[in-house]
Amino acid sequence: MRLLFACLLLIAISSRAQESDVTAEPKSPQSANASSDVLAKDANPAAEPITPEQDAAIRAFVDAKVLWIDALVEMKSTAIKYSNGEEKTPAAKKHYGEVRDQVRTLMNQVFDRAVELFRLRKGDFESGQMMATMLEYRESNSIYENSYEAATLLLETEVAYPFIYKIAARSAFLDGQYDRVIPLYQSFVDVNGIDKLEDIDKMISNLLELYPPLWQAEQERREQEAAADDLPRVLLETSRGPVLLELFENQAPNTVANFIMLVEDGFYDGSDFYQVIDDFIAMGGDPDGDGTGTSGHFIADEYEKKDARKLFRGSLVMAKMPDPNDKTRQIPNTASSQFAISLMPFFRENDSQTVFGRVIEGMNVVCSFRRVDPSKKKEKQVVLPPDRIVTATVVRKRDHDYEVQYVK
Question: To 10 degrees, what angle do helices 162-175 and 125-140 make?
Fold first, then answer.
């Protein structure tokens, strides 16, 4: 699995008991720049004495790495025993899921400790290399939460891998640091050329005027919803880990009722995320797994309401049947069971899909789903199975019946 692969790249990093013990380099991200030299030249402790605060940060970083690596070894061992049939039991499978989730949590803690150390000791080799390697992993998996500071710290010390500029700009956009987006992209273009910008980066640049007021309004709504704390919630136990959803019953009551009914009927259990595209969407809810399936019922659109929600990162949006005469449009009132989780914000003048909820926990899980792009040819490729919803459970709803109004 990609999480394990990315983590194992870093296990070769030796735990540091003393600053002078650094003898081995971890695998570096690919770059034409000699950025690792910037880190290496400042890694000599004789050049700058270690303060007590820095020493505490070093110890916290090393301790976090030890816990993470121990958990990685346990996860790998459990997976091997299960695959070999040594411990192929429900209990072993459950244990693997628990350790997998622990590895993900510890991985983020290692990243945080690396950032803290690098902030205190700019140019530190091990923490800087850890940050760069993890940022490369995050950028390749559309994981942008808590990435902006790490990227900017590295850029400030002239560690200028191309992917660091991109994740810095994307994270700045999502974190509301709008004035930093264009300068970061410009720095990237100056070195790499404008043709190396991806579609998502061009889209972000075009959204800079439209997005801020919409995001501000969305944040205000979320604050009100957090104070009320009564919106329905659904837990998706996926093949990659848990994802907690909150549903916008106030703005899309019939869509939410339809989703809750399908969850309670077990409709989504075992269904695939059959289309997962970088920086775009993770699509699921199709019983056929090929984009054509429905629940057998259809519901009316709710996107035209005055208070309808917009589509941000982590939003849930209902899919509809495409118009055979215009592939850029969907047939009205044909939402059924299929839904998408957006990996980035998208706004269009002809938005015609109902946003009915959002991910409140587990966005990093969604971003780890195996990429599946039906539009790409798969000649001479080993096609791995997509990730899936193992079970979906309603964990909270309001005290009333959820009756669905179908289109007749």
Answer: 70
